[in-house]
Amino acid sequence: VVRPGLLLAITLSLGLLVMAAGLAAGTLRRHLDDTAATRADRRWLFVVLALATALQLWQLWFGLPARWELDEVVAADVIGPARAWFAGGWHDLYPALFFGSLSVLSWPFMAAGTMGLVDLGQESAAVAQVVLYRLGMVVCGVIVAGLAYRLSMEAFGQRRAAIWAGFLAAALPLLVYLTKFSKADVPYSAAFLAAALFHLRALRTPTTAVYGWFAWWGMVAICLKDQAYGLVLLPALHLVWIRWQQQTGEGVVARLAGLAVDRPLWRAIVVSVAVFVAGHNLLFNVEGFISHVQLITGGGSQGFRTYARTLAGQAEMAGDALAMVPWTFGLPTALVIAGSFVLAWRVRREALAVLLLPIVSYYLTFMAVIQYQYDRFYLAPAVLLTAIGGLGMAWLAASPAVWARLSVAVAATHLLLLGASINLLMGRDSRYDAEAWLAARVDGDEIVGMAGPRSYLPRQGRLPVTDVEYDWAQVSAAPPHFLVVNAEFARRDRHADFFGPLLAGDHPLYREAARFKSSPGPAVLAYRPEFS
């Protein structure tokens, strides 16, 4: 039941999201006006952004009200710390700015709760806030697709290539997946890409305003997710080099003296420090910031290291990182992107270098240091590659050769099918079938035992559920009528004594009553070797 107080809070939060989307749309509209975009170009760009919106909204409700994504931030993670203004030693896996940004969407709920209009303890209020958080990720995701267009346009000045870049980002499976969950990956990528846009602009106009905006968005990205420092570090040094070349004095000492009073650099430094202090709430939560750093450099990362701290280990990691390119884009689009490097070199090589510099910086100063990698770590670098890949897509589409047009059609269709596969697989998740099976068979006095992390198991719903420890002595004392396990998790070695008899089918208490394994159906992504 949607009560008036809850409806009011939802409406106010939606209003904030609409305002954010409107500001982004206004910025894009001014860009199109300033660059004299044709009606056809505007229409195609609108189609691309509408495609991004549709792919990201589809399956936005995945898993709710359960927490099927391990690191997703929910209302309970935000409201308590927000009421304490993220001070008093508060710290978490993400920096304070990410939680603070989400808390803006919870402010109407907190105010309504204070006035007695909303019970924040009810599931409806908690789920509504998570949906709003996810809608915030969608706004950021559509902005990412728009920034792919802006980056390509700023770099190479070819409108059709820029629109193709936006398409490649919109259909990117990584982006389609990550916008479904309130995690920091998409917002920090959007902030960094905005900084990259001003980095490109500095090639033409290295003004004080450009440097200030680069510093603003670069530091916002870092304060949303710490690993963004790797994307910003070498580009920042490159911007210093640009100002070094702008100095008119003769000799090293004279140029250093000029840098010491250089207004663009000082603007960037002041903005960076201010955003860093505010983004981490350093004035009121120094101990929390220290604890956060200890978390992400200690237990939050050290246990995940995959590669040996040797030259051979680094070589193996680099090879796996390169293999992520065809995995991320699909082989046809990856080949087009590879060919686009030649086109980009011919069109504007300095812009190509600026687009590649953050990727090199990120790998050398972050990935090679932590020595483990997930594909989601490469969302921002992947979008930078789309800004380059748009050149190849546009060149093939404009070619009179049949093979060229066929190639671009295959690459675009394949990538779009990969992006849609994310949503198709989410909708076919076998946990939904397991829930329906249980709901049809469990009586009111029967208990359902859940063995394993809840993020890998069906949602509880209205079922009487209890969590089962990995100890058969405890289970035998009061065995649940039904026992639910995730077979993929159960095959891991860490709890073999508990799950082994169940998987072997010779357990004295339980027999297999049902097994659910969904077929991928039309989701082409699932037929790739990495899955099968």
Please, could you describe this protein's structure?
This protein has 532 residues and is an all-alpha fold. Helices cover 67% and strands 2% of the residues. The protein contains 21 helices and 3 strands. The chain has a 3-stranded parallel beta sheet. Helix 4 runs antiparallel to helix 5. The two termini are 43 Å apart.
Task: Describe, in short, the structure shown.
By secondary structure, the protein is an all-alpha fold. It has 21 helices and three strands.
**Proportion of beta-strand residues:** under 5%
The share of residues in helices is 55-70%
Shape: globular
Distance between the termini: 43 Å
H/I helix tally = 21
Largest sheet strand order:
2-1-3
What is the H/E string?
HHHHHHHHHHHHHHHHHHEEHEHH
Mean pLDDT across all residues, rounded?
93
Tell me the major beta sheet: 3 strands, parallel
* Poorly predicted segments: none
Instruction: Supply Rg.
Output: 25 Å
Query: Which structural class best describes the helix and strand composition?
Result: mainly alpha
Give the strand tally.
Answer: 3
